[in-house]
């Protein structure tokens, strides 16, 4: 993406030495731009931060009033999983869909940045936004009385697996539908999974249907976060489910994603 000018020894002129920047610098520059675009967009910020905080506070206070068996120690890991899903799937799918519509991705395709580099930049941007989400939601949870028993390795693996699964599925959706259809589908899937996908509440809250939803990426991510941040366990089964969904989403994206 850059070119260098070098001055031959003993002369005062410059000789061009064109060439692209190192691959890592390209990816980091793309990730920085993607992060700024996400944080400047009010709708995306609403989905990424505001809605998870509202769900956390409303869930905890509502459970206290109706005397549910679920408390802040159950809700906080689930809402953290919801935050990962909102950014990795909904925000990414919507942003990518409109980038395809306006020709942004097509123009990036003409640059030295490869398709792999573009996707890597988007994933790094997601991880940066997720750090902000974890800080905000985690702080609100602690203020509400959350007392986590943390498995750091389990939490990191759940975050990585959940991000990979939902990002690949979000890109598969955005790469195969028109922008308006992506917007509608991404929001609809987000609402359905938030309400019935065992992401905020554990799968046991859904009775017999819980045996089904725990195999969804939302259910697996929710259970993984609750195990890692509630019981301090390594949720191997849920991690395998998430990496399986990541493989499916990646395969679909590789076959169907187009630059425009």
Low-confidence stretches: none
> Major sheet, described briefly?
2 strands, antiparallel
Number of domains: 1
Distance between the termini: 22 Å
- Give the proportion of residues in helices: over 70%
Radius of gyration: 21 Å
- What is the overall number of helices? 10
Shape: globular
Number of strands: 2
- How much of the residues is beta strand, in percent? under 5%
**Class based on secondary structure composition and strand pairing:** mainly alpha
Topology as a string of helices (H) and strands (E): EEHHHHHHHHHH
Give the strand order, joined by hyphens, for the main sheet.
1-2
Mean pLDDT: 81
Care to give the gist of this entry?
This protein is mainly α. It has a two-stranded antiparallel sheet.
Task: Explain how this protein is built.
- This protein has 260 residues and is mainly alpha-helical.
- It has one domain (22-256).
- Helix content is 73%, strand content 3%.
- The chain contains 10 helices and 2 strands.
- The chain has helices at residues 23-40, 42-66, 72-101, 104-109, 115-143, 152-174, 179-196, 210-213, 217-231, 236-256; strands at residues 3-6, 15-18.
- A hairpin with an 8-residue loop joins strand 1 and strand 2.
- Helix 3 packs antiparallel against helix 5, helix 3 packs across helix 9 and helix 6 runs antiparallel to helix 9.
Give structural attributes:
single chain, 260 residues, two-stranded antiparallel ribbon
How do the strands and helices of this protein lay out in sequence?
Layout: E1 3-6, E2 15-18, H1 23-40, H2 42-66, H3 72-101, H4 104-109, H5 115-143, H6 152-174, H7 179-196, H8 210-213, H9 217-231, H10 236-256
Helix pairs in contact: 1-5, 2-3, 2-5, 3-5, 3-6, 3-7, 3-9, 6-9, 6-10, 9-10
